[in-house]
TrEMBL record:
Span of the signal peptide: none
InterPro entries assigned: Cro/C1-type_HTH, Lambda_DNA-bd_dom_sf
GO MF annotations in UniProt: DNA binding
Occurrences of domain HTH cro/C1-type (ranges): 7-61
Pfam families registered for this protein in UniProt: HTH_19 (PF12844)
SUPFAM superfamilies in the cross-refs: lambda repressor-like DNA-binding domains
Lineage: Bacteria, Pseudomonadati, Pseudomonadota, Gammaproteobacteria, Alteromonadales
Name of the protein described by the UniProt record: Transcriptional regulator
Source domain of life: Bacteria
């Protein structure tokens, strides 16, 4: 799990200020502070943008998610609402 310390470390390593990250994510600096302090959780869309701006390769994570999805889809049983009475 990625926590606030990880977010801060990525941002600092990339040379991005809290203000700079806030501008990139189109949010308040206070939001960035809250993410980094663990007061609030970062949304997935913003997390992937954070990776992008910090030059973190999320490709392997995305590939693993796609593999899991493909396996699940191939094994998936019909939903209860899809079953006939």
């Amino acid at each position: 799990m990625i926590n606030g310390d990880d977010l801060r470390a990525m941002r600092v390593n990339a040379g991005i200020s809290q203000d700079g990250m806030a501008k990139k994510l189109k949010c308040d600096r206070k939001t960035i502070i809250n993410y980094e302090l663990g007061v609030s959780d970062i949304r997935s869309k913003q997390l992937f943008l954070w990776f992008l701006y910090c030059k973190i390769d999320a490709g392997s994570l995305l590939n693993e998610i796609k593999q899991i999805r493909d396996i699940t889809n191939s094994k998936e049983k019909p939903n209860l609402q899809d079953e006939e009475p």
